Amino acid sequence: MTNLSQNAVVPCQLVGPMKIIGPELNGELQVPFATFEAPLWPSVNRGAKISRLTAGIKVTILRDCMTRSILLSAESSENLANILSSLQNVRAELNQAVAATGRFVNLLNIHPEVVGDLLFLRLEFSTGDAAGHNMTTKASEAVLGYLLKKYPELKYISVSGNFCTDKKVSAVNSILGRGKYVVAEILIPKEICEKHLKTKPEKIVELNIKKNLLGSIISGGVCSANAHFANMLLGVFLATGQDAANIVEGSQGLVHVEMRGADLYFSVTLPNIIVGTAGKSKKMDFSQENLRILGCLEQRIIGANSRRLAGIIGATVLCGELSLLAALTNYGELMRTHELFER
To answer: Which of 67, 54, 100, 258 lies closest to 167 in space, CA to CA?
Structure first.
């Protein structure tokens, strides 16, 4: 096998500044954005301009956890029912087993599912400023070790049973969350919408219903109704050294838009933003520099830097989504833009 010595190079530019309001960030900042799709830079910039002309993008993080689902089996579902009824009694021991695997990992919740003689346990962990892929696997192995010793009737099947769910489309992640659950929202006065987005608020509301909501329903979308969340996720993921495959579940999210009097309320909800500011890929020169630009390498309480990054990504997604939907309300604008920036 031939070893490739060169690195893949993806063009990267700063977009913004965008005005963001949230618990881990408050102010204007530019965001490193890596993509081969050149029109995305001016599109996100247009959304960022709207944020500066208004009170800003309000970002809220509702949940923060990383998951791994272990899979075991027993002689029958009756055996599994008895084991499940006693799990709460050994929670302290499970917590200790997890804590012994690392300083920054803690067991938060356990969600069980029984299928015949199979037991799926979806384990939720806090992982500090790391995305937590390896951290949760190691902690899950510790949980497995304890359970197999405590309950000899159990048999090991896998340290990952697809109930996590990692890098796959699922309903469970949107319902229970995986990574950071982020909501970003903005209120846009009518005159700003018409002058700078070149459309009326009512048109964006109508398009969101007919394209994002109804279009996603007839396509069979799973817990997802958006135009192109994945584009913005990938842009910031690549720039900051994230595992880009996590945009699969990360792009499952919802756009909710409504009229507030004559003004436009616009929001994006992303239940599965899986990012970190600590870990091997975040120590590369380019990712370190870009995380520094975003203020995500500061001395803060554990987990605050990764939550800050997730909030910035949520705001970036809003900027790109808002700009595209506005463009789509005008016949021919999307194609004209692509021809302008790509040819």
So the answer is: 67
